[in-house]
Amino acid sequence: MTRRRRVYEGKAKVLFEGPEPGTLVQYFKDDATAFNGEKKATVTGKGVLNNRISEHLMTKLAEIGIQNHFIRRLNMREQLIKEVEIIPVEVIIRNIAAGSICKRLGIAEGTPLPRPIIEYCFKSDELNDPLVSEEHITAFGWANPLELDDIMSQSLRVNDFLLGLFAGIGIRLVDFKLEFGRFYEGDEMQIILADEISPDNCRLWDAATNKKLDKDRFRRDLGGVEDAYQEVARRLGIIPEGGPGDLQGTTAIQ
What we know:
Layout: E1 6-9, E2 13-17, E3 23-28, E4 31-34, E5 39-42, H1 46-63, E6 70-73, E7 78-82, E8 85-86, E9 89-96, H2 100-105, E10 112-122, E11 131-132, H3 134-139, H4 145-167, E12 171-185, E13 188-194, E14 202-206, H5 216-219, H6 225-236
Antiparallel strand pairs: 1-2, 2-3, 3-7, 4-5, 6-7, 8-12, 9-10, 9-12, 10-11, 12-13, 12-14
């Protein structure tokens, strides 16, 4: 890792220069943060689990035509990804009321929403990722109307697929966050899915008990964070009962 040029470091991942033009190496850290970095800790093995879970889900999404930045997993903590121009907007897809929407709108946690709701936040740690409207996004040039339509369409497709996938393993997909980027190939540009999909940015509840299997266990001091992430990975079939060994990865869709 030290021999590569560091491109960017966030709360949970580091991006390094890739081995060939147009690629990056995404490294998953064990750092856990909440409340915009005010709460911090280290969760041993979290980076390994998130690497494997995100690899699995990105590969499955590529198989149904959702293009994303994942190329292949390199090792337990790193994956090779396409370099994209990140759009500075986080897309939140909500199926069940939880987290900030409950506080903002006075809705009881666990209330099923009448349909999936999409919200947008401006990516800014300094401003605590404020909620923004489509009008803000297009007015300030973060994305144009056609790009925003594409982002919404892809987000709903991802939601439909993940709802079914998680329901099949006894997990309720409460809400999750996505990021998108512009991928340039010659004169062509397309909006593709980026970042990660893992228990760090998804709310996942056991379908029978509503036990939280995501980062809320860290946010709310519930304990058992690594066990919850391992449970998600086990149900997805990507680690054995014994724990997160460095198993052979799924085949990446180019």
